[in-house]
Specification:
The complex is a heterotrimer.
Chain A: H1 15-18, H2 21-45, H3 50-69, H4 74-99, H5 101-127, H6 131-140, H7 145-174, H8 181-212
Helix pairs in contact in A: 2-3, 2-5, 2-6, 3-5, 4-5, 6-7
Chain B: E1 6-14, E2 20-29, E3 34-38, H1 45-52, E4 63-64, E5 67-68, E6 82-84, E7 87-88, H2 94-100, E8 101-104, H3 108-111, H4 117-127, H5 132-145, H6 161-173, E9 179-183, H7 191-203, E10 207-211, H8 215-221, E11 224-229, E12 232-238, H9 239-242, H10 246-251, H11 258-263
Parallel strand pairs in B: 3-10, 3-11, 8-9, 9-10
Antiparallel strand pairs in B: 1-2, 1-6, 4-5, 6-7, 11-12
Helix pairs in contact in B: 4-5, 4-6, 5-6
Chain C: H1 10-33, H2 40-54, E1 57-59, E2 65-67, H3 71-78, H4 80-98, H5 106-132, H6 134-163, H7 169-201, H8 219-242, H9 244-254, H10 278-306
Antiparallel strand pairs in C: 1-2
Helix pairs in contact in C: 1-4, 1-5, 2-4, 3-4, 3-5, 3-6, 3-7, 4-5, 5-6, 6-7, 6-10, 7-10, 8-10
Classes of the chains: A mainly alpha, B alpha/beta, C mainly alpha.
Chain lengths: 226, 267, 320
């Protein structure tokens, strides 16, 4: 797994980058909720069907502004969004298909728009915030410590384990000449099993390493960020 | 004669299925002394190191559901067999022991478990009770000492293997141990990485006990060698003496280091 | 099955989020009470493991591919509450870092995959395990629970989508059930094999696996367990097949949601067949239930047979 996949742009110096991670997280989540709720809220206030679109357009502009303020490359956003568009398009298509074409097209299109805007918001958040800052933000927002610890360890070992899986996959490819569905599924089962056992044993070693540096079972209090 | 900083007496250890990993291990280490533990694979080198700070034998210290990390070891009593600065390495003393023994594991990924390098190196000092600001200072100095001063807030997976090994060393040094126990420190390092690592080790005043296959490194860094095979000590003496003893080395799955072979006059 | 933003409306998001928060909050209290701080490294590594495992795809006949959800796997390995926490973290990471599943839908996703996967899955797993006993019971239970977790999770998803007014319930439910009964087979196969593998090499790592070495189950017991669950499923599906959809629809109509507002627009492939007809949901449901139960138990039976009757001595920890 490309190791800089997640943090390629997160160490910039723009205004967005420098904002407190808590602020960014809360703002992003509220913004997403707002985007999702837009059609309903607008329907309460205005009857003009295009009113929703107006609001969505404003919201989209806001995200774009934030993204460009952060100095992030457009290609990155475009690629991420494009990758998801086929899937979202299909989902959006489901609405007119099951609910009728008169209102269906509009609803479907709005679904697509809302999804894309929300995606852009999340992408902006993640691309401007290093993971360790996100963790600290969660901690300060009183997410339970257990979950934070699991998160921290997961992030740390995600890449290691995906690499292990890749190595196993490559080794399997090197010796698979006549692939069949049954073979694939059986191998997957074994891979999962191996992955689990290796992960357990690594967890034991990590625990031993933590004890070796004085850990006594509770996380030491950290101040976190510079 | 100074009291030994590390003393091991009649240490034995076996696995649940009865296989012995260590039998009757006895030796001492003086202040600042460095000894290389050499032997074939499976000799018990890593197992021995894990006894230096009490990770083995463990009594339910790592209790995960129904698995006990090595708890089925037969210690019929809690009689100590290892002493660090005359402190017996048993249950209640472990925190003190672990302040004094810095253990470096073979796989850096097992030891770098924090989201950023700085946090990871701060882990030890924080656990020792230092305040955050003090711990940060110590961490920064330790990272500088291993040549990674600029890497503070990087996540471990952004670093190369050699760099990660150095971070692990920094993390251990941050605890200011008087004994360094290192498990295969130069394995999988490229020649430059290896040189860098050895240069750092050479300057450290702590007593060193190094389990390794890298006999050239042992020649350069250690005055003394202990040859371990099948859980027993077969030789304990000056490095030059043991590492030139071809018969002994070959008998235990090793060979004379190249530098010595090349410097011997041709028969 | 990770729901993106926009598919669910705010009230459904809020409702599912509230349910999830309450359940996960309880799990946190339970796990913290058991002094699980020192299990955090293990759970984190397991979460990473699940994440990696979910990246593997297996092709399914419908032309797409499915991947492992891992709810039952996590619950069997770690226990139901730990499993729920691990899954919650995995879902949160996928949502925030990879935009796989939207943050507003996180509550629903945790409900469908975490709560249904781990908790309900474990509730299905445990009785089967106890009944069959030994390692075979563990494997059989895992296989069955895995299938149900996928199908139930998909049904929950369809209901959530319908409640949001996005899709028509009958149409979605029918399709989801059929497709996910097949995906569920993949999940049960992989879960079963994974669990069997771990039991062969490190049985001590499986949650609650203390009687692996001593109780040997007869294959016949797996069959009986299978029939019992088949009966249970039939009982479960029959009210659904007759009363429930109408009941559900009526109550939703009273709430102001009209699920029948769509006109069938797709040409009927067969006379009498129309998309969106409850009749066909019943058909789909029965088909899914029928195929699923039979095949799943066949799998469970075969895999349980595959576990050797001799316990492996070397790895079982013993007190000394």
């Amino acid at each position: 797994m490309q190791v800089d996949f997640l943090d390629r742009y997160s160490r910039g110096t723009s205004l967005v980058h420098r904002l407190d991670a808590r602020v960014k997280l809360v703002v992003a989540l509220l913004f997403v909720a707002l985007v999702i709720a837009t059609p309903e809220m607008v329907a309460i206030l205005f009857t003009e069907p295009l009113a929703s679109w107006l609001f969505l357009a404003v919201e989209a502009w806001l995200v774009v502004a934030a993204y460009s303020l952060a100095g992030l490359p457009w290609r990155y956003l475009a690629l991420r969004l494009l990758a998801l568009i086929p899937f979202l398009f299909l989902l959006a298509l489901g609405i007119p298909l099951t609910r009728g074409f008169e209102t269906g097209w509009n609803q479907g299109a709005q679904l697509l728009a809302r999804s894309l805007i929300s995606l852009a918001i999340m992408i902006t958040l993640v691309a401007t915030t290093p993971f360790s800052q996100l963790l600290t933000a969660f901690q300060r927002l009183h997410v339970p410590q257990v979950l934070i610890s699991i998160l921290a360890f997961m992030y740390r070992y995600m890449f290691v384990l995906v690499d292990e899986l890749d190595k196993m996959r490559r080794a399997k490819l090197a010796r698979t000449f006549y692939p069949s569905l049954w073979w694939e599924v059986r191998l997957m089962g074994n891979f999962v099993g191996i992955l689990f056992v290796r992960a357990f044993e690594r967890a034991e070693r990590v625990y031993a390493a933590m004890c070796a540096r004085g850990w006594r079972g509770t996380a030491p209090t950290k101040d976190g960020e510079p | 004669m100074n009291p030994p900083v590390l003393e091991v007496r009649e240490l034995s250890f076996h696995y649940p299925d009865g296989r012995f990993a260590l039998r009757g291990i006895t030796f001492q280490l003086g202040t600042g002394e460095s000894v290389g533990i050499v032997g074939p694979n499976g000799a018990g080198k890593s197992t021995l190191l894990l006894h230096m700070n009490g990770i083995l034998p463990s009594r339910g210290q790592y209790e995960h559901h129904h698995h006990h990390f090595g708890d089925d070891t037969h210690s019929h009593t809690t009689e100590p067999h290892v002493w660090v600065e005359a402190i017996p390495v048993v249950g209640p003393n472990l925190p003190q022991v672990r302040r004094r023994v810095g253990l470096l594991f073979q796989d850096p990924d097992d030891q770098l478990f924090c989201p950023t390098i700085l946090e990871d190196v701060m882990f030890g000092p924080l656990n020792l009770g230092h305040r955050s600001a003090v711990a940060r200072d110590i961490a920064v100095r330790s990272l500088a000492a291993v040549g990674l001063g600029d890497y503070d807030d990087r996540p471990p997976h952004h670093l190369s293997f050699g760099e990660r090994k150095r971070v692990c060393l920094a993390g251990v040094l941050a605890c200011d141990p008087m004994i360094l126990a290192l498990d295969e420190p130069t394995s999988n390092l490229d020649p430059r990485g290896r040189r860098q690592f050895m240069a750092i080790l050479r300057e450290l005043p702590a007593a060193k006990i190094i389990a390794t296959h890298d006999l050239e490194m042992v020649l350069e860094l250690c005055h003394r060698v202990i040859l371990l095979d099948e859980g027993r000590i077969h030789a304990d003496g000056p490095a030059r003496e043991i590492l030139t003893n071809e018969k002994l080395l070959v008998e235990h799955g090793l060979e004379v280091p190249l530098s010595i072979r090349l410097s011997k006059p041709a028969p | 099955m990770h729901i993106q933003d926009g598919l669910l409306d705010i009230k459904t998001c809020a409702a599912t989020a509230a349910l999830s928060i309450v359940t996960v909050g309880y799990a946190v209290r339970r796990v913290s009470r058991d002094n699980a701080d020192h299990r955090a490294p293990l759970m984190g590594v397991m979460a990473a493991c699940l994440f990696a495992a979910q990246m593997m795809n297996f092709p399914i006949p419908a032309g797409t591919s499915g991947h492992l959800m891992g709810g039952v796997l996590a619950a069997v390995m770690l226990g139901p509450w730990n499993g729920l926490l691990v899954l919650t973290v995995v879902l949160a990471v996928q949502c925030v870092l990879f935009q796989d599943g939207g943050p507003t839908a996180l509550g629903a996703n945790v409900l469908n995959v975490g709560v249904i996967g781990s908790l309900v899955g474990y509730a299905i797993f445990e009785p089967i395990r106890r009944f069959v006993g030994g390692m075979r019971g563990t494997v059989a239970g895992a296989v069955v629970a895995a299938w149900f977790s996928v199908v139930l999770g998909a049904s929950a998803c369809a209901i959530e989508l319908a409640l949001s007014g996005t899709y028509h319930l009958a149409a979605t439910l029918g399709v989801m059930l059929l497709v996910h009964s097949i995906i569920g087979l993949g999940e049960s196969l992989i879960t079963g094999m994974g669990v069997a593998f771990v039991l062969r090499t490190r049985p001590d790592l499986v949650y609650g696996q203390t009687d692996g070495a001593t109780i040997l189950a007869k294959s016949g017991e797996v069959l009986v367990a299978g029939l019992a669950v088949a009966l249970f499923v039939a009982v479960l599906l029959s009210p659904f097949a007759s009363e429930l959809p109408d009941g559900l629809e009526n109550s939703l109509k009273r709430l102001g949601l009209d699920l029948e507002s769509a006109e069938p627009l797709m040409p009927a492939p067969m006379p009498g067949y129309a998309l969106g007809d409850w009749e066909n949901v019943r058909l789909a449901g029965s088909l899914a239930g029928g195929i699923g139960t039979l095949v799943v138990f066949a799998i469970a039976f075969i895999m349980a047979r595959g576990i050797s009757s001799k316990p492996s001595i070397a790895r079982t920890p013993h007190a000394s």
